């Protein structure tokens, strides 16, 4: 397991850091990570549970989404509601990488990727690269693209 905090090259958006402090009572993130080759960032912490609670600051800042790998299989939240479109992408990625996926995390996501397919693809790349980094497993851009293709083909 890689040591935390995980930092990516570059400067994270200030709104991400402020949003994290606001949502998590002034704490600092254990994980600060950027999707390789994209402008999409994640600030979060591992929560030691099977639950993933994600907030997309650029899309729906007041609506965190919680799911487990089991609920993600049906593309549902923990409360059996349909996952919002944006949350299907990290959920699908984590399902594909379930052997490597972290236990669970609470995280905020934001960046300057344009809304639509590019943003959704960047979400998969973000979670694929983060999952490999957390498991201390090397990856290549081609592998990330293969994971994104598998996630879209199998779960979306």
Written description of the protein model:
The chain has 156 residues and is an alpha+beta fold. It has five helices and five strands; from the N terminus they run H-E-E-E-E-H-H-E-H-H. Helix 3 packs parallel to helix 4 and helix 3 packs across helix 5. The radius of gyration is 14 Å and the shape is globular.
Helix/strand class: alpha+beta
Q: N-to-C SSE series?
A: HEEEEHHEHH
Radius of gyration: 14 Å
How are the strands of the biggest sheet laid out side by side?
1-2-5-3-4
**N- to C-terminal separation?**
29 Å
Quick recap:
With 156 residues, the protein is of the alpha+beta class. Helix content is 38%, strand content 17%.
Fold blueprint:
Elements (H helix, E strand, L loop, with lengths): L13 H10 L7 E4 L5 E7 L5 E5 L8 E3 L1 H5 L11 H12 L8 E7 L5 H18 L6 H15 L1
Parallel strand pairs: 3-5
Antiparallel strand pairs: 1-2, 2-5, 3-4
Helix pairs in contact: 3-4, 3-5, 4-5
What labels describe this entry?
single chain; 156 residues; alpha+beta; 5-stranded mixed sheet; 5 helices; 5 strands; 17% strand; globular
């Amino acid at each position: 397991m890689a040591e935390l905090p995980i930092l990516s090259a570059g400067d994270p958006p200030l709104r991400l850091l402020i949003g994290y402090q606001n949502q998590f009572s002034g704490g600092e993130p254990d994980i600060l990570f950027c999707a390789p080759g994209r402008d999409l960032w994640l600030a979060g912490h591992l929560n030691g549970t099977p639950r993933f609670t994600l907030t997309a600051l650029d899309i729906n800042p007041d609506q965190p989404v919680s799911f487990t790998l089991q609920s993600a299989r049906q593309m549902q939240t923990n409360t059996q509601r349909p996952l919002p479109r944006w949350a299907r992408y990290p959920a699908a990625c984590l399902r594909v990488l379930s052997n490597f996926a972290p236990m669970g995390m609470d995280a905020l996501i934001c960046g300057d990727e344009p809304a639509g397919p590019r943003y959704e693809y960047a979400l998969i790349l973000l979670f694929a690269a983060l999952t490999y980094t957390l498991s201390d497993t090397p990856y290549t851009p081609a592998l990330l693209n293969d994971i994104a293709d598998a996630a879209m083909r199998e779960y979306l």
